[in-house]
DNA sequence: GGTCATTCGTGACCACGGTCATCTACAGGG
DNA sequence: CCCTGTAGATGACCGTGGTCACGAATGACC
């Protein structure tokens, strides 16, 4: 931690960290719903009210965690310019990487994903993460069009949404079943094959 | 109502009906979240506890309503055998019809859809509706394959899931924006065009 | 060090979804 | 018409997420 901060700032960061890790521990132990804010506060050694000074709602913890995971993802993927392979390869790799991250903590990931989606759909708050991810996918699709891998004139916006939709539902279905064998990979590859073929990529069927 | 029922049975049905319509009214007036069970009970002229004799949880109302809407949908669509046009046409028509139903009451539909999906994903309870709908889509896709409209050897399971995914996310996105102009129709047509082309249907692009 | 403003911690408090022991009123038999 | 067993109505009660008025701790300035 940056030592150039006042005692106050340092303590604030430290408390936030305590709350977050207490919460994550409990979520892993008993699940999100079964964990009460009071328990989290107790384990973090603060009062319940203090929790809400740091996170406006219980589920803000999930957003925060999601952002961390997203940052980790981008870290592991490295700078965009250095990605190799066709756009189709890149899209597939991106999503397989997401799958890897999710597989590390399936139960919590499931809650994170579903609860964030819910809030996004209900417009409960501006959720920058979704837009950011959407931009990334759109960029990859556009790259494919520019390189002539996907058909010129492709509606990049809708194509990207379709790719995301295919991925999202597969991921959720996978987690629903408790993420057992990697049937998951085949499922997403089959769907992507259909889409890429629909986008004019030759030689992708079944 | 069947008059051959005892007073008790009739009253039970009548009370359930009162609760349901009171709830729907309130949901339309103030939205699902802003409506408390106590309010519903009050308007239905019963005690709060009575509500839970009829519906195990507040959101069971949404399931019940969803089932009604689904029944209405199948009613309006008529018997499967009489559907005309290509499989692709039939799929598109099915989803446009769903869109019509949703458009009649966008706000409540949004809540219904999202909350039901949430419970489905979290496996909170067996949700027969989703499976039923999935079977229907699968059937239409299979029909397309058998007729030679889609490529032989198509993975019907995954193709159907892809169609559903495309539709579902478009629908939600549409409702998110408050379901204004029918940009919705174009969006779903574009996505379907990609998918159908990916499935080997000739002459579907952009 | 003394004074003041600000920020942060706190726990009593509220509204809500959901439970449950208790009571009510009806069906059915005599 | 009365008695009794039972389905169903009820509202006090609980645990939870979230609020808020208050007070303590801290930093800034003299």
Give a verbal description of the structure.
The structure is a homodimer of 206-residue chains. The longest helix of chain A has 24 residues, at 7-30. Helices cover 71% and strands 0% of the residues of chain A. In chain A, helix 2 (37-43) crosses helix 3 (48-54) and helix 7 packs across helix 8. The first copy, chain A, is elongated. Chain A has 206 residues and is mostly helical. The first copy, chain A, binds a DNA duplex (30 and 30 nucleotides) through helix 1 and helix 3.
Q: Please tally the helical runs of chain A, counting DSSP H or I stretches of 4 or more residues.
A: 9
Largest sheet of chain A: none
Taking the alpha carbons of the first and last residues of chain A, their distance comes to 52 Å
The secondary-structure element order of chain A is HHHHHHHHH
Strand content of chain A: under 5%
Query: Which parts of chain A are unreliable, with pLDDT below 50 for 5 consecutive residues or more?
Result: none
How would you describe the oligomerization state of the chains in this entry?
A: homodimer
Q: Gyration radius of chain A, to the nearest Å?
A: 20 Å
The interface involving the most residues is between: A-B, 40 and 40 residues
Helix content of chain A: over 70%
Mean pLDDT of chain A: 91
Strand tally of chain A, please? 0
Helix and strand content put the structural class of chain A at mainly alpha
Task: Itemize the secondary structure elements and their pairings.
Two copies of one chain form a homodimer.
Chain A: H1 7-30, H2 37-43, H3 48-54, H4 60-77, H5 87-104, H6 106-121, H7 128-146, H8 156-176, H9 183-198
The structure holds a DNA duplex (30 and 30 nucleotides).
């Amino acid at each position: 931690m940056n030592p150039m901060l006042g005692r106050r700032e340092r303590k604030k960061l430290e408390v936030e960290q305590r709350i977050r890790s207490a919460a994550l521990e409990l979520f892993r132990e008993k699940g999100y719903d079964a964990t009460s804010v009071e328990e989290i506060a107790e384990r973090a050694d603060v009062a319940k009210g203090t929790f809400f000074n740091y996170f406006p709602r219980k589920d803000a913890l999930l957003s925060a965690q999601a952002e961390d995971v997203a940052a980790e993802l981008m870290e592991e993927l490295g700078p965009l310019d250095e990605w190799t392979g066709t756009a189709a390869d890149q899209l597939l790799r991106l999503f397989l990487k997401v799958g890897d991250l999710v597989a590390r903590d399936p139960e919590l990931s499931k809650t994170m994903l579903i609860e964030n989606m819910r809030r996004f759909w209900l417009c409960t708050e501006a959720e920058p993460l979704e837009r950011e991810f959407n931009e990334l996918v759109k960029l990859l699709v556009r790259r494919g069009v520019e390189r002539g891998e996907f058909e010129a004139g492709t509606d990049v916006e809708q194509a990207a949404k379709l790719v995301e939709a295919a991925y999202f539902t597969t991921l959720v279905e996978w987690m629903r079943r408790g993420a057992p064998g990697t049937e998951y990979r085949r499922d997403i590859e089959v769907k992507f094959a259909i889409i890429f073929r629909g986008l004019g990529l030759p030689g992708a069927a079944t």
